[in-house]
Specification:
about 270 residues, alpha+beta, 6-stranded antiparallel β-sheet
Length: about 270
């Protein structure tokens, strides 16, 4: 599997409204400078750069481009203010019941340990070399399917952590980067404001070393989990890309014959 083929597969097996986004961290200045993507000419929040990449925009970012202090501190392109570190900052805004709870949130977030010289954020399909993280923001249904794809090879997902803060920068970027494991986010009020995500969208962050197995897992779990109507749409998208459709099996699901009483009926 390669990057282009993996994107073709995931966009065939899932009805994505946005492009999967690849994020690459650079710790060598020459490598960053030689990476042939335009650098942003003004500030942008990191989460909005991901949103723009999900719509096809590619960019490089440095410390000077960071438009959000929370995103900057997660990416170690800005310091963690003492009021955030000690819990007083969020407590005084009534986000948490007490300082101890507020401090525990800061203590458990996993930020970058080394400051990068720059970051590339762009559609995954545009990469010729492997990025560090893949981010997909989509419907809860599609994120469920990716969790099932991950579970096909890895079993139960016991590490998922989210709190409704620093959703794109910490939940989907620095946490997966540090743990080398997937994570999800329900997003947060800040990113929903500045990046204008849809109300029903959530996200998943995947270390690139797990990306291909997640894609393969989604493919392999199609027959047990997807219903025939969705299989018809998957088959159509595969054909449009010239991909193999022989693995799609209709009238076959993991729960065949499991239920009694039929689907719920609503009285009109």
């Amino acid at each position: 599997m390669n990057i282009k083929y993996s994107v073709d597969l995931i966009e065939s097996y899932l009805d994505l409204d946005r492009k999967p986004v690849g994020v690459k961290l650079f710790f060598d200045k020459e490598e960053f400078n030689n990476f042939e993507v335009p650098q942003r000419d003004r500030k942008v929040t990191y989460c909005n750069s991901v949103q723009l990449a999900s719509r096809g925009k590619a960019m490089k970012l440095t410390k000077e481009n960071q438009g959000c202090p929370n995103g900057a501190m997660a990416l170690k392109m800005g310091e963690v203010p003492e009021p955030i570190a000690n819990g007083k900052g969020r407590f005084c805004k009534n986000i948490y019941h007490d300082i101890e709870t507020s401090k525990s949130i800061s203590d458990e977030m996993l930020f970058l340990k080394e400051e990068p010289v720059g970051i590339a954020v762009m559609p995954l399909e545009d990469y010729k070399e492997n990025p560090d993280i893949v981010i997909v923001v989509s419907s809860s249904y599609n994120i469920m399917r990716m969790i099932q794809g991950h579970g096909y090879f890895n079993g139960y997902t016991s590490n998922l952590r989210t709190i409704g803060l620093q959703a794109i920068c910490q939940d989907l970027t620095t946490y997966p980067y540090n743990t080398k494991d997937i994570n999800i986010t329900l997003l947060c009020p800040g990113t929903r404001l500045v990046a204008d995500w849809q109300a029903d969208e959530i996200g998943i962050g995947i270390p690139f070393e797990k990306w291909y197995e997640v894609v393969e897992g989604v493919k392999e779990t199609t027959n047990p989990f997807e219903r025939d109507k969705k299989k018809e749409a998957i088959e159509k998208r595969l054909k449009e890309r010239g991909l193999d459709t022989s693995g799609i099996k209709f009238n076959e699901n993991y729960d065949d014959g499991s239920y009694t009483g039929g689907k719920i009926q609503f009285n009109k």
